[in-house]
Amino acid sequence: MxxxxxxxxxxxxxxxxxxxxxxxxxxxxxxxxxALSATVVALGWEKALVGRTPWCKSTAPIVGSLNDVDLETxxxxxxxxxxxxxxxxxxxxxxxxxxxxxDWRLEFIPATSLDDIRHLPxxxxxxxxxxxxxxxxxxxxxxxxxLTPCAAAQKLSPAILLYSEEPIGAFGSDTYLAxxxxxxxxxxxxxxxxxxxLSLEELFATQPKSIIVIVGxxxxxxxxxxxxxxxxxxxxxxxxxxxxxxxxxxLPGPEFxxxxxxxxxxxxxxxxxxxxxxxxxxxxxxxxDIQAPVTTQVGALEVTAEKNSQxxxxx
Length: 315
Prior knowledge:
Layout: H1 2-24, E1 29-31, H2 34-42, E2 49-51, E3 64-65, E4 68-69, H3 71-76, E5 81-85, H4 93-102, E6 105-109, H5 114-128, H6 136-146, H7 151-155, E7 159-164, E8 168-170, H8 176-183, E9 197-198, H9 200-205, E10 210-215, H10 221-225, H11 228-237, E11 240-245, H12 254-313
Parallel strand pairs: 1-2, 1-5, 5-6, 7-10, 10-11
Antiparallel strand pairs: 3-4, 7-8, 8-9
């Protein structure tokens, strides 16, 4: 009996030692999500990122995407952890098969809602299985600072947020960007979920006070400055229109925090410009109202003077 207890105790001690060793081992991470890759880097594990997609900002080898996995390069990375953004589709079968054969860990982390983004740093640290060089709390606190109520968001509400003008594509109420708008004190004109496409009639049927177009593709910089169709339609209906090139807002990771900071600054600047334009228009209108009776009075005086002159000339 004593021998059995000693064996069990030794076994438990070996297990604890193995766990301790694994927590001290530098992780080797391959990520199939730009958001997860950015989170890995932000947590201080840039050197631990040994595989990435073509869209991830890193110098790590490109191992393809979920739709086109480069298995040869992936195996050369000797990754021990594969990070995948959680979707209904799951992981490609070839990754699951190789992971099973190579004893790789697959971790699926959601990054769809605002709450997902809030928990992203902690979720990645938990997936790695050891404390990150940079505390996840720092990243979470930085995000929360940008989600505080914003007067400009309130002034522009109810708003509808678009990611495309032709065709018209909107951020639904359950998307992280729409949820961030609400957290900032704004309200949504659109109650649809997902990313619905809308006709021009459906867009204005939501009765928005403002429409904010957010684009982020490389070729969208000029498009953000040219939106004739919406500009004309909004002008006729008295709806404010703001178009922004803000690629960081379209990345559900640490860069989203930077994007929100710039976004808050842009909508604040937009509201200030609006207020100045309205004040100038009111001043011009008041000036015209003041000039109108003066002109009439001068005209009347001129007529009276003319009549008096004619009367004085009569014999």
